[in-house]
Amino acid sequence: MAEKTIFTRIIDGEIPGNFVYQDEHCVAIRDINPAAPVHVLVIPRKPIPSIADLAPEDHAVAGHLLMVVKKVAEQEGVAKSGYRVVINAGDQGGQTVPHLHIHILGGKQLYGHGTA
Questions:
Q1: How far apart are CA 110 and CA 34, in angstroms?
Q2: Is 1 contained in some domain?
Q3: Is residue 114 a part of any domain in this protein?
Q4: Which of 7, 35, 74, 107 has the fewest beta carbons closer than 10 A?
């Protein structure tokens, strides 16, 4: 069995996380090294390594993650002012944890393409 990622350990309650949302399919936690005043990660409970590893049977959870992004942005007060949604994939894409996660960044003016 593969070693658990930090996200799986947070989901399993082995290490603490600052949860802002949870349901049967995913969790949302505050990033421990925020790049913006609002920086939340939406993470599926299923340990999918990357967006590149999504399988046809993950169709429903992938769509659910985007609906949770919308809900969390509203909850965090950035839905009207605007926010950035980022999914890093692979080493060259900047992915540091091999567990699919979506960054929600907001609460300040964001510039450029893909940077906060």
A1: 13
A2: no
A3: no
A4: 74
Instruction: Tell me how crowded residue 101 is: count the other CB atoms within 10 A of its CB.
Output: 26
Dig out the tokens for 22 from the structure: 């949870």
Residue 27 belongs to what domain range?
6-106
pLDDT tens for each residue of 27-72: 999 999 999 999 999 999 999 999 999 999 999 999 999 999 999 9
Instruction: Give how many domains the chain has, as a whole number.
Output: 1
Q: Give the confidence band of 112 by pLDDT, cuts at 50, 70, 90.
A: confident
Say if CB 65 and CB 102 are below 8 A apart.
Answer: yes
Long-range CB pairs of 10-16 (<8 Å, 24+ gap) are 11/43, 11/45
The answer to the question of residue 41 being in a domain is yes
Residues with a known catalytic role: 101
- Closest by CA to 68, choosing from 82, 55, 79, 52, is 79
